[in-house]
Amino acid sequence: MIRDSRLSSVLHGLLHMIGAGEPVTSEQLAQAMATNPVVVRRVMAGLREQGLVHSEKGHGGGWTLARDPADITLADIYRAVGAPTIVAMGHRSENPGCLVEQAVNDALGDTFREVEALFLKRLGAVTLEALAKDFKRRLAKHKQNLEDQIHAVK
What we know:
It holds the Pfam family Rrf2. By secondary structure, this protein is mostly helical. 62% of the residues lie in helices and 5% in strands. It has a single domain (6-153), classed as Arc Repressor Mutant, subunit A. It has 6 helices and 2 strands, in the order αααββααα. The radius of gyration is 20 Å and the shape is extended.
């Protein structure tokens, strides 16, 4: 099964942008995300169309957030990357007139809609700022653990 990692990738890039505190070029983001700058520009263009990021050309230019991270939810970002399908399963559609197929599709359709609604609700409850704070907390703990390990070796 092919997995769609656009949301995860763009969140990765946005956290790098927040951490940089200054405009970040597509090349810098591509290096951080282990991808091609063209891919970064394509994805970021979608975010720009939704008013989430801004870009400046020329010396000192690059990508920046267009809104406060506290005002951007993960649901906003999910929608900006095209709201990729979250459930890989789908309806059978070989015989739409079949009553069995209709019953199965209705039952699955309800479940698919419930899963998507829950997913969007949870994404809507998390801001980009909260995600950045979680990363900073993890980074601080990681640095502390490394320091403890270094002191234990001495």
